[in-house]
Amino acid sequence: QKFIILTSQRSGSTYLVSALASRLFGMGGALVDEPFLRDQLEAVGWEEEEMATMFASPDLAKSWPLVRQRVKEAFSEIERDFKRQFSRRAPDARMQAAGFKLMMNQISRPQFRELVAYCAEEGIKIIQLVRINGLEQVLSMETMARSGVYHVHSEDEAAGLRQARLQLTPQHLWFGYNNLNCNHAWFYNAMARAGSPLPRGAYKFLTYEELVSRGKAAVDEVLDFLGVDQALAEGADKVFGKKNEAKERVPLKINSRRCSQRVANWPAVAAQFEGSLALEHCHHGPGYWPNLTEAEVVATFKPLPPFEDCSRFLECPTMYCAGKRNWEDKLP
């Protein structure tokens, strides 16, 4: 079963992909590295012109074939790696699931419509992973940007990052939060609303908060969604005599502090988000799981007042033009 995890930075995607890779070891695979990142594209021989066309061309007839090509390449990479590791050790081993993650800012909206139709035709399932507390998410993005550290795998690595207190621009966080919510809403509607070409059972909605709170049980449900027997996909230390190195790549949660403990000018940030659900959740601490239904979570995917809709937050979607976005233009 092929799958794609549609997500955004600092939403638990590396944890989910790594956990799936470790559980599927010997039964399939999941790419921890993002196949649509520049370094991954360069590694397989993509030229600058091809990347620019795929990410920035307004001509869908030119850009979509490149997206489709990269999707096929990613699945082929997983299959080749599986064969390399297990064809001699276990000639009868067969892949049961294979997938990778795709960030919302790595694909344009017209391209994504084509991708959803392509997934429907090819039987590829999509998991949308979102973080309910968008304020915590943008705080995590700021920590990542300033520290240069994306993930940690030991308590010693995490200790230093947990001491930092950031001085932040409240309006910048406000824009990032609104932009995330509007992107979540758009992509959700493209997959889960009436009229989507995805058949019933080909889409799963998952939140970071549920993943953190339920851990293995949440990953078990993803395996069920993919049609994999979770009892067999136990993530053993060795499979067919080969060490399960994927287990070492599952990252740890960096921050266990409340938002107010992580931001030096928290009163100013809190004032910017006054009355929002995100601020209320921040008071409960990181990873707080409000146990909302899918519909209740989706209802939060809207910009904060004074904006009534997402019309000012949907242009320039891909990372090639992200630098052109001026968040100050969006301020009330």
Oligomer: single chain
Q: Which consecutive residue ranges, at least 5 long each, have pLDDT under 50?
A: 316-332
Look at the structure and give the mean pLDDT: 86
Distance between the termini: 46 Å
Summarize the structure.
The protein has 332 residues and is an alpha/beta fold. It has helices spanning 13-23, 38-43, 48-56, 60-86, 109-122, 134-147, 155-161, 170-192, 208-214, 216-225, 259-262, 266-272, 277-282, 294-298, and strands spanning 2-7, 28-30, 97-103, 125-130, 203-207, 238-239, 242-243.
Indicate the topology:
Blueprint: E1 2-7, H1 13-23, E2 28-30, H2 38-43, H3 48-56, H4 60-86, E3 97-103, H5 109-122, E4 125-130, H6 134-147, H7 155-161, H8 170-192, E5 203-207, H9 208-214, H10 216-225, E6 238-239, E7 242-243, H11 259-262, H12 266-272, H13 277-282, H14 294-298
Parallel strand pairs: 1-3, 1-4, 2-3, 4-5
Antiparallel strand pairs: 6-7
Helix pairs in contact: 3-4, 4-5, 5-8, 6-8, 8-12
